[in-house]
Amino acid sequence: MKLIFNKNKKYILKFKKGEEFIEKLTDFCIEKNVKAAWFQGIGAGDKADISFYNLKTQKYANKVFKEEFEILSLIGNVALADGKIIVHAHISLGKKDFETFGGHLNKLWVAGTCEIFLEAFGGEFKREQDKETGLKLLK
Fold first, then answer.
1. CA dist., res. 92 & res. 45, Å (int)
2. What's the Cα-to-Cα distance from 15 to each of 24, 51, 53, 111, 134, rounded to whole Å?
3. In the chain, alpha helices (H)
4. Using CA atoms, how far apart are residues 12 and 16, in angstroms rounded to an integer?
5. How far apart are CA 15 and CA 118, in angstroms?
6. Residue 85 near residue 26, CB atoms below 8 Å
7. What pTM was computed for the model?
8. CB-CB contact of 12 with 20 (8 Å)
9. Is 110 within 8 Å of 44 (Cβ atoms)?
10. What confidence tens digit (pLDDT) does each residue in 58-114 have?
11. For residues 104 and 61, is the Cβ–Cβ distance under 8 A?
12. Strand 69-81 and strand 126-129: pairing?
């Protein structure tokens, strides 16, 4: 990962082929002490671990995709959960046959590049367990 731009807690980051996005962004946030941020990005990948959350059962359905795809939209935030920095991301992807799919992003391996804009805020966002949904939500 390469830091392309850094001014007033606004960052442009470029991820390299083969890097795992969530891991590298988490490492960056730990290094820069970012505990509250919002980000968006584009690029390409060749493996993605994505989930869909069922509110009724309060369980995730998970699927791993192993093929080349375009990152049509990558959006998320950074917060603390149980004292740890957590990257929460959702993604929309496009296949070579123009089929689109997406969901909650667990892991993403970059193919070509992934470029994001991240804006950090002072202080920290916190996530806590919500009994009604079963999710750790921003409080």
1. 11
2. 8, 22, 27, 9, 32
3. 21-32
4. 13
5. 13
6. yes
7. 0.96
8. no
9. yes
10. 999 999 999 999 999 999 999 999 999 999 999 999 999 999 999 999 999 999 999
11. no
12. parallel
Per the CB < 8 A criterion, the answer to whether 37 and 29 are in contact is yes
Q: In the structure encoding, which two tokens stand for residue 66, read together? A: 């192993």
Tokens of 56: 């009724």
pLDDT of residue 115: 99
Four-point Cα dihedral 97, 99, 100, 101, nearest 10: -110
Q: Which domains does the chain have, with CATH numbers?
A: 2-138 (3.30.1330.80)
Query: Token pair of 97, please?
Result: 């046959």
Q: Where is 86: in which H helix or E strand?
A: strand 84-94
Residues listed for the chain? 139
CB count within 10 Å of CB 99 equals 9
